[in-house]
Design brief:
single chain, three-stranded antiparallel β-sheet, 92 residues, 1 helix, mainly beta, five-stranded antiparallel β-sheet, OB fold (Dihydrolipoamide Acetyltransferase, E2P)
Length: 92
């Protein structure tokens, strides 16, 4: 379940590719190239999705590890072709 100030949207966690922080908002990107903007910070979703194989790999990014195709020291390639950076301090 994805929380927003005025709505509750149900998304299967296996459909989520990655979450991106925008200060106090979070952009949630799902498989069919759609994204949703939610009104909570990434930290809230980090606590909610910790048990669902999600990992915070950067200050602004959290990825679903089920969709990681390959990784290098600097970035992660996801199943849809998106490339997400990895922080030096948050190695996976």
């Amino acid at each position: 379940m994805i929380l927003n100030l005025d709505t509750k949207l149900t998304i299967d966690t296996s459909q989520i590719l990655f979450l991106k922080s925008h200060i106090n908002y979070t952009e949630i990107n799902i498989l069919n190239s759609r994204s949703f903007m939610c009104s909570y910070p990434l930290k809230k979703y980090e606590n909610l999705l910790h048990d669902h194989n999600f990992k915070r790999i950067h200050r602004t990014y959290m990825v679903n590890m089920e969709h990681v195709v390959s990784k290098s020291p600097a970035e992660v390639l996801l199943s849809n072709g998106s490339v997400v950076p990895i922080s030096r301090r948050r190695k996976i």
